[in-house]
Amino acid sequence: MLFVPVTLCMVVVVATIKSVSFYTEKNGQQLIYTPFTEDTDTVGERLLNSVLNTIIMISVIVVMTIFLVVLYKYRCYKFIHGWLILSSLMMLFWFSFMYLGEVFKTYNLAMDYPTVAMIIWNFGVVGMICIHWKGPLQLQQAYLIAISALMALVFIKYLPEWSAWVILGAISVYDLVAVLCPKGPLRMLVETAQERNEPIFPALIYSSAMIWMVGMANPARHAEPTNQDTGTFCLISAYNPLALTMLRGVKLGLGDFIFYSVLVGKAAATGGDWNTTLACFVAILIGLCLTLLLLAIFKKALPALPISITFGLVFYFSTDNLVRPFMDNLAAHQFYI
Amino acid sequence: MNLERLPNEEKLTLCRKYYLGKLQMYVCVWGFAFLPFLWLVNVVWFFKEAFVKPTYTEQLQIKTYVKRSGLGLLLWVAVLTTWITIFQHFRAEWGEVGDYLSFTIPLGIP
């Protein structure tokens, strides 16, 4: 049941990358989180710079996650909500404005400011309402997918080549550590939320169904906003110990959506042809399958990134360097297998 | 949000709130805050409630709000379609004003 949204997100990202050239153009601008340039003279320097970039990026993420957990532990809910509202505002208005502009430029359409203002205003306001307040479930899910896709596109544009791949690898390791180690921040987050019997961080999570909590008068709401700075990278099964839940849904953190899409998007942008993209796509879905299987066996919060990203990386590099030349040669010699 | 699980009064308040297009912060300019999309969501989401389900007490009010949202929506669609048609057709002829209004200008010779 999580396959459809993950696939949708990846399809949107790949479609945009292949058609709108803006997201693959490198104009030297980089995020402040990755200050080292990759335009170096030697391969060694480039590798060093990408590793340094990764270290900086991962430390930023670690610091933010710990900050978030501390805030949650000390019940600074207002601060967290304010932060999340600001991030979703930026995503829904600014990034979608940029995206719309680029799509219009690609298809060479004329568009006037009043109409664009109307479109963005409507999109943004209804998005804020759906995500932070109440809305139809499918619309909430659609908005979360849209936000993850936009974020992934921003990462693809502004992360330099090698740094992106190293960051993907490092983030999977961090996810593993943060969710499974006893003192890992994400594990503490999950446990604190369970102790307080609250929905596990009503933010950053995509859920496939609504959940009824036993004994609460109001239905617990899930599938809420996104914080693109960190994202909780855990796959959590919505379970209630008293086994009286009406609906079970599976939840996936939005950070997971984003990084899956970054992997597939990068494969589409730099990988050459569709073989690579498809291979990565299949690899991620297989990884997701395995993670869900493990979830059914262990019944606790699990990191969703490691398995899928590992498979994705392996498939990307092997397809790009082994399968593609092989297929090209076969085609060149008209040899069909 | 699953509509079946809400009691009827909540459904009514929800429908009304969507109709007015208000957020908790002060956004509502000139009454309806230029949000036809919100009205569309209102109509689609509550359509079954208002017209397909068997009658219950609050249903009449829900029907009114859905109808009003539908009317507002149709009005906005008409206005937007007219404006877009006019703009696309006359953009080149308007010269300076056309460029000033344009967000993206297509390249090349028409």
TrEMBL record, chain A:
Swiss-Prot/TrEMBL keywords: Endoplasmic reticulum, Golgi apparatus, Hydrolase, Membrane, Notch signaling pathway, Protease, Signal, Transmembrane, Transmembrane helix
Cited SMART domains: PSN
A Pfam family: Presenilin
Membrane-spanning segments: 51-72, 79-101, 113-131, 143-159, 165-182, 203-222, 242-264, 276-298, 304-323
Domain of life: Eukaryota
Entries under Gene3D superfamilies matching the protein: Presenilin (1.10.472.100)
Signal peptide: 1-16
Gene Ontology CC annotation, any one: Golgi membrane
EC number: 3.4.23.-
InterPro entries referenced in this protein's UniProt entry, alphabetically: Peptidase_A22A, Preselin/SPP, Presenilin_C
Topology relative to the membrane: Multi-pass membrane protein
Localization (cell): Endoplasmic reticulum membrane; Golgi apparatus membrane
Main location as per UniProt: endoplasmic reticulum
Molecular function GO labels: aspartic endopeptidase activity, intramembrane cleaving
UniProt record, GO biological process: amyloid-beta formation; calcium ion homeostasis; melanocyte differentiation; membrane protein ectodomain proteolysis; Notch signaling pathway; protein processing; somite development
Family: Belongs to the peptidase A22A family.
Domain free text: The PAL motif is required for normal active site conformation.
Function: Probable subunit of the gamma-secretase complex, an endoprotease complex that catalyzes the intramembrane cleavage of integral membrane proteins such as Notch receptors.
Assembly: Homodimer.
Protein name per the record: Presenilin
UniProtKB/TrEMBL annotation, chain B:
Record-level GO BP terms: Notch receptor processing; Notch signaling pathway
Domain of life: Eukaryota
Coiled coil ranges: none
Membrane topology qualifier: Multi-pass membrane protein
Broad class of where this protein is predominantly found: Golgi
Key words of the record: Membrane, Notch signaling pathway, Transmembrane, Transmembrane helix
GO cellular component entries: gamma-secretase complex; Golgi cisterna membrane
Compartments, as annotated in UniProt: Golgi apparatus, Golgi stack membrane
Segments crossing the lipid bilayer: 23-47, 68-90
Pfam families on file: PEN-2
Family: Belongs to the PEN-2 family.
Annotated PANTHER family: GAMMA-SECRETASE SUBUNIT PEN-2 (PTHR16318)
Name of this protein: Gamma-secretase subunit PEN-2
